[in-house]
Amino acid sequence: MSTSAPAGITRPGRPRVIPRAASAAGPRDEILHVAADLFVNRGFAATSTRDIAEKVGIRQASLYYHFAGKPGILAELLELSVRPSLEKVERIEVACPADVPEAALYVLALIDVETLATVPHNLGKLCRMPDVRSSEVFAEFQPALQELTAAYGRLGADIVSRPVAATVSVDQLGGLLVQAVEVVIRIRSRRVEVTSAHARAIAATCLRICGVPEARIARTTVTADDLLLRFAEERPA
What we know:
Elements: H1 27-41, H2 49-56, H3 60-66, H4 70-80, H5 83-86, H6 89-95, H7 102-118, H8 130-133, H9 136-157, H10 162-165, H11 170-181, H12 183-189, H13 196-209, H14 214-233
């Protein structure tokens, strides 16, 4: 399965992801990489720290040097699926031109698509797994997830048409937009590469959910490209 970033998307401050090759990763990163594979494909409850340590090729005691236990590993993996997008929300809102407010939601959707498309082993699945959702770790993670959903709702509310605003609340709108972006998880589950075309179609769908006219969507794509380029140029050397 390919997990390459959608082609053509500029990467403003791309987050660190878990390295794939053991030779290129430190022990802590390799533990996360292996745990991600096991949690997604075997299940969180069905995976033990011994399973993770054996697959990494270290003693179980060595794993505890890096993590207190399985919940700490899960907590970090869950953050990888949300935090990179959430950390860019304020910057997007500040940079978005007032005459094209739709660009803020469009850019957030593009960045969020990239986050979900590049996290290893389709980590976005974890948020949907019953054994993860019933864990104490997920309860602690939920505020971050709710914060991202609220950001979608806030950006959507800034551009929503009157007919749409009359039928859904801001909270409901945020949930709908998050669901539209999370189609990336289903695409990856089919072992299909998430392309630039997928990313832009998903971002445009977010605007359509808000009732944005097609002419405005076309203008938004140009502005969004300019914003992404600016973000890339502002990255530290």
